[in-house]
Amino acid sequence: MSAQNVLNTIKEKGIEWVDFRFVDLSGRAHHISLPASEVEEETFVNGVAFDGSSITGFKGIEESDMVMLPDTESVYVDPFTAHPTLIVMCNIYTPDGERYDRDPRGIAQKAEEYLQSAGVGTTAFFAPESEFFIFDEVRFESGQNKSSYFVDSEEAHWNSNKQEEGGNLGFKVGHKGGYVPVGPTDSQQDIRSEMCRLLMESGLRIERHHHEVATAGQGEINFRFDTLTKTADNLMKYKYIVQNTARQYGKVATFMPKPLFGDNGSGMHVHQSIFNGSEPLFYEKGGYANLSELALNYIGGILYHAPALIALTNPSTNSFKRLVPGYEAPVNLVFSKGNRSAAVRIPVAAVTPKGCRIEFRTPDSTANPYLAFAAMLMAGLDGIKKKIDPRALGYGPLDKNIYELSDAEKGEIRSVPGSLDEALNALEADYEFLTEGGVFTKEFIDNYIGLKRDEAKAVSIRIHPHEYSLYFDL
């Protein structure tokens, strides 16, 4: 879509405001709204100025001026604003016209450019399965003399004996009992359907939605794959619409990986493949799970670099509350066909040559999608470049339920890092694969690690309520 086509859309749809958006290092979107009457073709050339020093991890106050340049291919109408508003995703540039090396969206685009320059293929496709919880109430605080959180859901099993207005009608979702039940147990069919309606109106191709395993309103909506940057844009749109639809229903949606103790967490399984033109490069009939050697090398790169990669795909302290055995969490760095207990799964049911892909199951939705997808692609391309064979390195294939292996057998399997600090240590030691082609810079990685270490420290130095249960009476 050209700038003129965007202007035509503004006129045809009676748009009053144009909302220019960018994404920070953590993956949070920020926006500045201009009256539609002030948006001209020059706006798409000159961009929209903003203060980079007010964005965590960007610029210092002495060099704060930055520019958002709109991407005319990323527009959609905001389904929530009272005044008709058009949303436009932007790339970030310095005032002298240089691409800003800390712009996550720019990094994603550089990864796509590197794929082509490396001569491997023309296009990388991504499809995330981003799970979430819908709660009825959330309260939390963290102070000097108190620390607590509370979440509640009308369908949670702990409310089976709660007195409710009009009477308790039962049909609560049992502990780990939430996988695809029909109503009335699944009480959130309509809210997920409304989310899907708005997502489709906003340009996403929705494949399905359903209740997920955990109690208390865990759900999942799957949308169609697309190229790397477009998929990251789509995931930002997806989270925006899911969270705002929940709010319209008087509820709250969260993509936090582990908001509940003792039940399944929310992951973001990421399907990915590479094409050369119209030719799928991951398919080879007769190979393991019909995978080509190139695909196996891609898997080798993902698993070899996984400890460092996880600092970008699972970048929160809460991520590692999910990455523990026993909750379908893919903590074991192996690959397998159809096996959901492996970090890398190769889907085999009803898969065509063009649908042949790998699924990295470890990530979660606290990841900045632009950074996470770019990092996964760079790890996979490094595996292709170096012909990393995951079979030779002991990464499988392992077609068994890993959780049922003996302790001796489990001891042979490499696991994901046990904490955010461990993942950051791995990234410090293994980052060169990210800097190939100038996709990530060493300065960006150092800055990112510093920001994430501050987060980890902020959590580690605070008193946890459970410590009172363990130690107060000693």
Automatic annotation (TrEMBL):
L-glutamate binds at N264, G265, R322, E328, R340, R361. Pfam families: Gln-synt_C (PF00120), Gln-synt_N (PF03951). Residues 104-474 form the GS catalytic domain. GO terms for molecular function: ATP binding; glutamine synthetase activity; metal ion binding. Residues 13-97 form the GS beta-grasp domain. Signal peptide: none annotated. Its EC number is 6.3.1.2. The keyword Isomerase does not apply. Mg(2+) binds at E129, E131, E212, E220, H269, E359. GO terms for biological process: glutamine biosynthetic process; nitrogen utilization. One of its GO terms (cellular component) is membrane. Keywords: ATP-binding, Cytoplasm, Ligase, Magnesium, Metal-binding, Nucleotide-binding, Phosphoprotein. It is found in: Cytoplasm. It is an enzyme of class 6 (ligase). Belongs to the glutamine synthetase family. This is Glutamine synthetase. It comes from Paenibacillus piri.
